């Protein structure tokens, strides 16, 4: 009987966490760990884990983005509370799905070039250098428009010295390490397959 | 880092600070700064400093060096991670990849955030209550104060304070710009961009706007060298009478942010 009550309580918490994570509460999507803790209790990390397992069947996952980028498995309670939690897709899309999702091919290309350049330059790149590379293939107005749009949507952030950095959306949505590997051709086969599926 | 002839100790410290700032802001290799050598220089200069501002300059240099050392630490840490790649190699690869191929790359690495927008039952109730209690526009208009009652006199000072009126009249602004143009054209003419350039882009656009009036009203003339693709401004000694001006033609000159940025970067 007690076990049933526990399961029911956990189920209730998972549903509550799902609502909080799916529905946009702030201007920026996702919620902070402390917000989840406040809503579902101290065992929120376990609840999030359970929710992520349930979502896996729908090709979704709960993703955590920490304030610091250190690649460690063990995170302190405080770090978890300050991390931001999002629901994202679990598996990659096909290239045709990306285009169908409303992105124009040239806009996606501009984003990939910009993000990869910033990653390769240790996390920051002067805007005019990024612009000069993009302008080799896209008109000036388009380059300006796209960079401003990437800033507005949270992929990039620009400081007062016109230097570009990756912003919260890039860190939440883009696998930076894989991006660099693909650009350098280490995963060529995977790419070829995806490319063929697009042109088919 | 040998000292240039005629360079004072203070100049050298300013140059070091400039280098450190450039490394920090432009993401250059922090190991380009020879920290050991600079610290030696600071040690050498320190006994000579007597004035407070020299000591402050010394402290500022040391502070910038500390920042560079911190950047060196981060740089090493970054290089030791799997994310380190040669930026030139990445740039080269990016230039070679076509747009469809870049989309294929993006598809592999992109996990878009899933988010929904919705209304709760409580919010719908609140909205219904709001609608029911909201008076019609007609009623709300009646409650507004009568516009004629609120009319009053605003003094010129008040308008200037509120930035609705400039302290100088437009003619005075043009006059002062004309004098500035005359002063800066000892060789008879000045490059258009050199004259309109200001520290901010907004101010540059404002100067370009005013210069267009200088030309239209006969305070200055414009010279275009098609071979050099250069535009020059030549001030007129006296204001030209409308009758003595040649037939007016319009010349569009783009005052774009890119050119302004280039000029700003070239400024010492």
> What order do the strands of the largest sheet of chain B run in, or round the barrel if closed?
1-3-2
The tally of helices of chain A reads: 11
Uncertain residue segments of chain A: none
Q: SSE order of chain A, as H and E?
A: HEHHEHEHHEHHEEHHH
What is the share of helical residues of chain A?
Answer: 55-70%
- Give a count of the beta strands of chain A, DSSP E runs of length 2 or more: 6
Q: What kind of assembly state do the chains in view correspond to?
A: heterodimer
Q: Which strand order does the major sheet of chain A show?
A: 1-3-2
Number of helices of chain B: 12
Shape of chain A: elongated
SSE-based structural type of chain A: alpha+beta
For the report, how would you describe the main beta sheet of chain A?
Answer: 3 strands, antiparallel
Structural class from helices and strands of chain B? Answer: mainly alpha
In whole angstroms, the N-to-C terminal distance of chain A is: 56 Å
The first-to-last residue Cα distance of chain B is: 20 Å
Indicate the percent of residues in helices of chain B. Answer: 55-70%
- Residue runs with pLDDT of under 50 for 5 or more positions of chain B: 1-6
Mean pLDDT of chain A: 85
Report mean pLDDT of chain B, rounded to a whole number. Answer: 80
Q: Give me the Rg of chain A, rounded.
A: 20 Å
Task: Please name the defining characteristics of this protein.
heterodimer; A: 200 residues; alpha+beta; 3-stranded antiparallel sheet; 11 helices; 58% helix; elongated; B: 268 residues; mainly alpha; 56% helix; disordered N terminus
